[in-house]
């Protein structure tokens, strides 16, 4: 009879941490996204002679890469676990609507000539602070959130909705339905105005306000889910870290551009970008406290069980 096979796990000296875990792909999400962002920013701003403009572009593309790549750790985790338990469906639904509105806001302010002129008239001849990386980020965020929702549909393994969970799901669905009706009515009204460009500019401002409002509430279902389960298993912490980095760099770029041009209307004219960064950082801190402080022991126990199961499957 052949001798039983034993799984071999090499560990880093003095830590007991398996080397395979140390060099796991998920550990490279944060440094990799920062490196890519800086390199892209340097490449695309190589022709800029103004150091301020060049630094702003580097900040912009680094935040774009950090925020954009932040969606992929969760996708990878869902695929790896073949499960979406621990990920709030309500959070993703609100995310989809919010990023859809944010993309419309950025795309029209960046590409639509009449709306761009209307913005200048309203802000003393100053152009909007919306940059190409803002448009790219919001469009990509909308698409990747849609992919995440497809994953949720494919792997759907949530327990049956009861009590508070059922109320929360119905509340979010009713709120999004009511919001859709209001936004459609506002769009029709703006299109019928004599000065349609100014009407659409006002509508885009409403879109940005709604996006900020969604950003304030969208994280709450995920925070509540983590609190109720008393762990963050199934919720990618690398997503949170990249989101925090992206938010801080986004706000830094906005403030730098306003200070560099002595035009602080760039901030008041783009409230979505300012508030989006600050709100995301606020909730990211909550998630980090949940993951690293409140529920760290439970998370480590879950990870240890997963490693044991992995070793058992290899043996």
UniProtKB/TrEMBL annotation:
Q: How does it sit in the membrane?
A: Multi-pass membrane protein
Annotated localization: Lysosome membrane
Q: Secretion signal: which residues?
A: none
InterPro entries xref list: LC_transporter (IPR005282), PQ-loop_rpt (IPR006603)
| Transmembrane regions listed in the UniProt entry | 28-46, 58-79, 91-111, 135-156, 168-190, 196-217, 237-256, 276-294
Alphabetically sorted, this entry's keywords are: Lysosome, Membrane, Repeat, Symport, Transmembrane, Transmembrane helix, Transport
Task: Please give the catalytic activity noted in the UniProt record.
Answer: L-cystine(out) + H(+)(out) = L-cystine(in) + H(+)(in)
| GO MF terms held by the record | L-cystine transmembrane transporter activity; symporter activity
Q: One GO CC annotation, please? A: lysosomal membrane
List, alphabetically, the NCBIfam families matched: 2A43
The cross-references to PANTHER family, in alphabetical order and at most eight, read: CYSTINOSIN
The family assignment reads: Belongs to the cystinosin family.
Q: Protein name, please?
A: Cystinosin
Source organism (scientific name): Polarella glacialis
What lineage, starting at the top, does this entry show? Answer: Eukaryota, Sar, Alveolata, Dinophyceae, Suessiales
